[in-house]
Amino acid sequence: MPARRRRPPAAARRLPLLDEHAIAATATADGRRSAVVPVHYQDEILRCMVLPSPDRDAPAVGLRRLTPVEALVTITSHPRILGWSDPAVIEQQFNLTAELVRRVPMWEAQVPWGPPFPPDLAAELLAAIRRELTAPTQAR
User: Fold this and answer.
1) Alpha-carbon radius of gyration of the chain
2) Separation CA 128–CA 131 (nearest Å)
3) Angle at which helices 87-103 and 68-76 pack, to 10 degrees?
4) In terms of pLDDT, which residue wins out, 46 or 7?
5) How far apart (Å, rounded) are the C-alpha atoms in residues 101 and 99?
6) 34 contacts: CB under 8 Å, gap ≥ 6
7) CA–CA separation, 121 vs 112, rounded Å?
8) What does the pLDDT look like over 39-97, one tens digit per residue?
9) How far apart, in whole angstroms, are the C-alpha atoms of residue 73 and residue 68?
């Protein structure tokens, strides 16, 4: 019996839409498509950071604004590379992260546990974030 090929997830099947925006998509070694999306850093502003926190008892999305200290501890406790030991690199990353959390607000997002995830979870999370970003400063 020949091996059955797995169907890619829905997000991967939508890649042809990238062709409309002149984004190059290439085939990967395992037959999927890969795309590199151009980023224009000078035109983009990081408005906020959101750390999802799955919760088995959460009926809906909830947001909690982290203090800069909480945000710094949270980000540094999720390193990209575990076990990095070069003191100069660690110091640089710490200083850059401290500056980032000073400038950019961070929220912890309580989200219902899945799968299955509620079909409107992403829309609900984005709406909650937009409400927070547009709320008067003193309400935060």
Assistant:
1) 19
2) 5
3) 140
4) 46
5) 6
6) 25, 26, 27, 28
7) 8
8) 655 556 788 999 989 999 988 899 999 999 999 999 998 877 788 888 998 899 999 99
9) 9
